[in-house]
Write a structure and sequence with these properties.
Structural class: alpha+beta
Radius of gyration: 19 Å
Helix content: 55-70%
Strand content: 5-15%
Shape: extended
Length: 116
């Protein structure tokens, strides 16, 4: 399960438990934050990361996007990507395995585990 989806579902469950008889989520809640991150991940975050890898600046990325995203949102996506890269979350490789009938399959493993 994707991290943003997991975060969204966790926040939704926490919000459901915290909301009383009034119904509805309070403004600025964890639910709304998770919903915003999930929306950005679906709408423009992959494109922002791709364009940044190609060397585009924030303003150039904003000009290329079809989805209306602010410079702050774009910089937030880039900041989050850098944090994930620094923590080692994106250090995966794909290992090719072949079953006894010769059918190839691929599995994702951490680089440190693949070296062993």
């Amino acid at each position: 399960m994707d991290d943003s989806l997991r975060e969204f579902l966790d926040a939704m469950e926490a919000e459901r438990e915290s909301v009383g008889a009034a119904g509805g989520a309070p403004a600025g809640s964890a639910f709304l934050g998770a919903l915003g991150r999930m929306t950005s991940e679906a709408a423009y975050a992959p494109a922002v990361r791709h364009l940044a890898e190609m060397g585009y600046t924030t303003e150039e990325i904003k000009g290329q996007l079809l989805y209306p995203a602010t410079c702050e949102q774009i910089e937030g996506v880039l900041r989050e990507s850098r944090q994930k890269a620094a923590s080692g979350e994106s250090e995966y490789v794909y290992v090719k395995d072949t079953d006894k009938y010769g059918k190839p399959t691929f599995r994702r493993v951490r680089k440190s585990e693949a070296d062993k």
